[in-house]
Specification:
globular; four-stranded antiparallel sheet; alpha+beta; C8orf32 fold; single chain; 186 residues; 42% helix
Length: 186
């Protein structure tokens, strides 16, 4: 059995490894996709993180939060204007640490994106909650892991009309393009 300080150190390493995967949309929502492709969405990165933490003996639970689709930093981008008033159904984790209790962990944005100003905690110590990638959450839902996809789609069905879903998808595609350019710029 690992000592608590050793377990925490391993947890921090795993969190940083998964966070380092570039965010890219679209992508499959499962852990295998993020591991295979070397990039992920909020869903696939957190599925991979949950799997790797579980291998260390650390449990987690899916957390769905609702917040802004277009990050505050990009509200002025005219290609994203149609999505400024829309919400995103975002996925992250509650990690059940033995040293600090339940902590919100959100590794959606990779370090270059956080350095550009998107919400994140680059020097996370495992002692406090991370900020949500969507900024301030306006709602949150705890859902079982085996019903996560169904629950998330049910929330989206309540939230978006078909045209809003298309706008959301276009905005996520544009965000991925912007983020790729940020990474190229350094």
């Amino acid at each position: 059995m690992k000592r608590p300080s050793e377990l925490r150190a391993h947890c921090l390493d795993v969190v940083e490894e998964v966070r380092a995967l570039p965010y890219r949309w679209p992508g499959a929502p499962d852990s295998d996709a993020a591991e295979r492709d070397g990039f992920g969405t909020c869903a696939s990165k957190h599925a991979l993180l949950a799997r790797r933490l579980f291998a260390l003996g650390i449990d987690s639970a899916p957390l769905i939060v609702l917040g802004r689709l277009v990050p505050e930093l990009l509200v002025g981008d005219e290609d994203l204007a149609a999505g400024v008033g829309l919400f995103e159904v975002h996925e992250c984790l509650t990690v059940l640490t033995p040293w600090a209790g339940p902590l919100v962990v959100d590794v959606t944005w990779d370090p270059p994106l956080v350095r550009r100003g998107l919400p994140g905690a680059l020097d996370w110590t495992g002692e406090s909650d991370m900020p949500f990638a969507i900024g301030r959450a306006v709602r949150a839902w705890a859902v079982p892991r085996d019903g996560l996809r169904t629950a998330k789609e049910a929330i989206r069905a309540r939230l978006y009309r078909p045209e809003e879903r298309r706008i959301r998808d276009r905005c996520l595609g544009r965000l991925s393009e912007i983020f790729a350019s940020w990474r190229r710029e350094g």
